[in-house]
What does this fold into?
Amino acid sequence: MRKLIVSLLPLATIAALTGVARAHVSIASGPGFANTTQEITFGVGHGCAGSDTYKVRVEIPTDVLSVRPMRSDFGKVSVEKDAAGTITAVSWQKADADVLDADLAYYKLVIRLKVPNKPFATYFFKSQQTCRAMDGTTSTVGWTMLPTDPVVDGGADEPAPALVVLPARRPGWNRFTVAQAVTDVAAIFGDAQIVWKGTAAYSANPATAELIGATPGVTALTALAANDEIWVKY
It folds into this structure.
């Protein structure tokens, strides 16, 4: 059944994995891969109410180690450390003379880090974005909200940049055992051609998803439990 569906259809289009694509500060480089060293790119899509972005501060989750921020023409990079010398936050700040007179630019800020060996986990990098108007006044937006946080009317916080961790993989079929429950298969496997568990399947490709729904005995795969065994084709 897996071979039949995949052979009939083209590759799935790579989809956003984080669910925060509209955030002003978000992870633009896609998923992380467990137990690997990667460059993670933070995209700054907009300034604040027409003002240019002046400073970005990114908090580093506890499990994320070997952090080395990349120097950027955005501005000076600095780090904060705890008593043990572990980097807990990274900031980039423009020189006053480099601030644009309006919200015109898109920025990329990069951190090289070791992705934790925890496949299917999601790590949140709480961030603060400070903007500076031409009259010198500044304003700050906190991109710190987690999926478990209650939604409060009138609150200023927005979704924190999220890094989805995938297991190491190779082109073609991969067999994985899910270490922890996955409540949203689409959020984890948006760039897979197809995902199978028993007689259930998922695909981000609309044509493949339609074929899954039309195949007798096959149901839609939306969630996974811990210790489920799955097959994924990339």
Residues 206-214 form the longest helix (9 residues). Confidence is low (pLDDT under 50) at residues 1-23.
